[in-house]
## 1
Amino acid sequence: AQSVAQPEDQVNVAEGNPLTVKCTYSVSGNPYLFWYVQYPNRGLQFLLKYITGDNLVKGSYGFEAEFNKSQTSFHLKKPSALLSDSALYFCAVILTTSGTYKYIFGTGTRLKV
Amino acid sequence: ETGVTQTPRHLVMGMTNKKSLKCEQHLGHNAMYWYKQSAKKPLELMFVYSLEERVENNSVPSRFSPECPNSSHLFLHLHTLQPEDSALYLCASSQYYGSQTYNEQFFGPGTRLTVL
């Protein structure tokens, strides 16, 4: 089945240290991958996306993600974590089959800085 | 602010009540979505509207009834809900819907629904 997985429910990182939030995917065809962040009592907020081109994608608030086709991964990274980065992070993939177009979200990873 | 508003922010209702959730987007987008967010579960896409027409209905029980009167407004009408329907209901919009346009979605803050 086509899916996206976030293997860690929670990631703890000290302020100032680099952070990584993991995402792996399983789709047929080209993957279209997204990262969103959710702060308390708020909706999801778009961070970045990979559609095609450069495997390293830069997004909002200093975040970046690297698309790795051989490992089917799209990990979110930031060189130096801030306290304000504490939030819930969602990886998502778009599935396109038979004219339909569907976002599939992971279960989320809580980042605590 | 993302340009997507939802009202009410909190709603408590009994199983026999009828209520509606409202979503409004101020972004000029053509597609709108309802999602259900429950603890420790992936976001569940419920309905998709593109240019005011429903294009997806992902096996949602009939006690949830969407309505999209125009491209800026989306409603979710609720009746005879069950306690397991308690969740955060998120509305989102994107510029377009379709396989050639991989648009990001803009989310509202959600309505926290509790069914007693």
## 2
Amino acid sequence: EVQLLESGGGLVQPGGSLRVSCAASGFTFSSYAMSWVRQAPGKGLEWVSTIGGSSIYYADFVKGRFTISRNNFKSMLYLQMNSLRAEDTAVYYCARGAGDTFDIWGQGTMVIVSS
Amino acid sequence: EIVMTQSPATLSVSPGERATLSCRASQSVSSNLAWYQQKPGQAPRLLIYGASTRATGIPARFSGSGSGTEFTLTISSLQSEDFAVYSCQQYNIWPRTFGQGTKVEIK
């Protein structure tokens, strides 16, 4: 079964850092671009970042603060989030794809930025 | 950045009726348009890609149409499990952008 499982969310103070992770299983992880998409409470979906074979893309609102990375040997995707702001509060979803669509999604991990 | 605008924000439909949702792009995205369904407390699910191709396992009552800047998602006969939020997303250029969603609720 194809599955994505996020972890690492939690409460962090403004200006703090957090790393969220995504464990992939059931498919050849290294063959796919992988992405992070977030959803603030009561809001719509917002693309954050994508990592492909040799390409990395970021939304403007996270450039310089967030870093996406992957470990193909462990089938893991990561998002290192620094200089967190209140507006970064959201459920962070790991998703397969973004060369085109996001065809598989994890259940999400909640990140709350608050003092 | 391409802005995706969905209408209406909320659609009230009775079970068994047809639902028509719209998505407009601020510039052409060709046919690089996807639709997602999201139920409360759940992750989104891919319904349609390429503007009109159903994803694996998606029932035939879901259909997509359009190209360029105007797109439509039609649910031919609403079932109880179809009441949810539907979002469109363009993948023609970076950054990938989503519409704000249309909530389909029971009338």
## 3
Amino acid sequence: QLQLQESGPRLVKPSETLSLTCTVSGGSISSSTYYWGWIRQPPGKGLEWIGSVFYSGTTYYNPSLKSRVTISVDTSKNQFSLKLSSVTAADTAVYYCARLAVVSVRWFDPWGQGTLVTVSS
Amino acid sequence: DVQMTQSPSSLSASVGDRVTITCRASQSISNYLNWYQQRPGKAPKLLIYATSSLQSGVPSRFSGSGSGTYFTLTINGLQPEDFATYFCQQTYTFGQGTKLDIK
């Protein structure tokens, strides 16, 4: 059974870079039919897609975050990572990683449990 | 960009009720529509993909329909564990969510 687990600092200072890693277990990240994505959810609000990465390193980013986001993949560790620079309080959210099916319809399944990252000095 | 609008934003119902949640797309998206359930403090869970295909393990009381710009999620015979927030999703855009709580 495929499982994803987010890890990284829970508290980040304003203007610094948020860094998270998602570890995939129970399956290979090097699949030709899936991307791997990051989604976030500010407290009490809806879901926002941040970006996605293919095992080859190909990435797609939300245009609204593109200037600050870098997503990378490490197939040797079965992990992919998120970096979000110049964070502000508006970046406080639960950050989820998920597998993204890329057939004609694109869906996220499964999801990691999520990690709350707070931006505060 | 395609915008997804869910209605209602919140809904109260009783155990055993039949409820329907609507998701509208700002332009035609064929059948490229998925539904998720999110319980408090938990990650979203895929319920339905490609408008009407039930994800493995999801009870058959959940169903989805629609095409183009109008889609629905129906729950027949609400169970206590169904009181949660539901999101629709098209590619990289999510609806704002519908919170279903107990009347």
